[in-house]
Amino acid sequence: MFLTRAIDLQHCPEIFRLLEEGEELKDLKKLKSEDILIRWINYHLRGAGQDRQIKNLGSDLKDSFALTHVLNQIDPAKCSLAPLQTSDMATRAGQMIDNGDALGVPRVIEPAHIVSGNTKVNTLYCSYIFNTKHGLKPLDDECNFDMADLLDDDIEGTLEERQFRIWINSLGIEGVDVTDLYDDVKTGILLCKVADKIQPGSINWKMVRDPVKNIYDMQSNNGEFIRGCKDKTSGLNLKMIAIGGDNLAKGTKIDTLASVW
């Protein structure tokens, strides 16, 4: 979490380059850091003239093909494509890590991690590469104008929303990475996970519909969250006054903030 916290548009506006056709900046802003890293790797693969694209940071990196090309795109002088000339995956991974070392990337990974497709360790290593030197082209005037609009929108965001978002992410709930509090709570699943993390057993998961299929599922899930919050026996014993599941499903700011508070 510490290493990926700066992999966003605010800290690195050049991520603008990773927008796909038909997307807006707000779509890119909602992406998890891992998804941005995948796009970043694919961006450099395309820059290297490769048709191959990755879909994950685990098995798709096992042969070192993608990361060898990424490092070469970032600094061809220090990071050659020589590792790809060997067929032994462990040897290739070791040479790729040597290239990263020459670029200034901390040696926090072993060839065995790469070859085994260890997603968590690979994410760690990719984050180190990105934070050392991402290799994305600087923004031109047009991009800077768009980024100014995005940052202005962010300034208008409430302090509470940011604080609550950071707090939820700090709880260490598996699969939870909140990028937009108002949008991410709509399904009710996130809030149920938060409540159950704080008070295990407060949520009746048999009543939670995951994945949601429609607005009624979202309202039902949020209703279960509210019930778990109010429950004096196995729940959180909170006073949830004038907060309805339908409002949470719509992402209503005042209800969302009050619920998380």
Explained architecture:
With 261 residues, the protein is mainly α. It is elongated and about 65 Å long. Helix 2 crosses helix 3 (65-74) and helix 3 (65-74) packs parallel to helix 4. The chain has 2 domains: 13-132, Actin-binding Protein, T-fimbrin, domain 1; 157-260, Calponin-like domain (Actin-binding Protein, T-fimbrin, domain 1). It has helices at residues 25-29, 33-47, 65-74, 89-103, 111-116, 119-132, 141-155, 159-170, 181-184, 189-198, 215-230, 245-249, 253-260. The model is unreliable at 151-157 (pLDDT under 50). The chain has 13 helices and no strands.
Task: Describe the secondary structure blueprint for this structure.
Elements lengths: L24 H5 L3 H15 L17 H10 L14 H15 L7 H6 L2 H14 L8 H15 L3 H12 L10 H4 L4 H10 L16 H16 L14 H5 L3 H8 L1
Helix pairs in contact: 2-3, 3-4, 10-11
Quick structural overview:
This protein has 261 residues and is mainly α. It has helices at 25-29, 33-47, 65-74, 89-103, 111-116, 119-132, 141-155, 159-170, 181-184, 189-198, 215-230, 245-249, 253-260.
